Amino acid sequence: MNTTAKSATGEFDAGLFDCTSNMGTCALACFCPCVVYGQNQAALKGGEGCGGAGFLYTLLAAFDCYACIGAHGRGNIREERGIEGGFLGDCVTHYFCAPCALTQEHAELVKAGKK
Asked: What is the DSSP track for 43-101?
């Protein structure tokens, strides 16, 4: 049963470039994005750690496909929170600013009480 409240505005609570409001997550997303991605996906599913999702992010990043997996994860968060958007926009967001996107997603999960 999904008990997470939906976004009241249909948008992410934090702006894409508000990433400096949480410097710890921002720095981790810059240097180890696979960890933040994995933690976000684990939190979305009610778990902890970064496990398989983080490994998959690393594997796809080795082939320069990190934006695709990042977009998939962002889509999961958007769906859970009732945030508007689509895969193409998510892919572009992750391609050009993955650390900011991952930090924004982290902030959304914190607001939702998932972290």
From this structure: HHTT--S-HHHHHHHHHHHHTT-HHHHHHHHHHHHHHHHT----HHHHHHHHHHHHHHH
First CA to last CA distance, the chain: 18
pLDDT at 2 over 50: no
Question: For the packed helices 66-81 and 51-62, what is the interaxial angle rounded to 10 degrees?
Answer: 140
> What one-letter code names the amino acid at 62?
A
Residue with token string 């996107």? 101
Q: How far apart are CA 52 and CA 50, in angstroms?
A: 7
pTM over 0.85: yes
Q: CA–CA separation, 73 vs 28, rounded Å?
A: 17
pLDDT digits (tens, 9 = 90+) for 54-71: 999 999 999 999 999 999
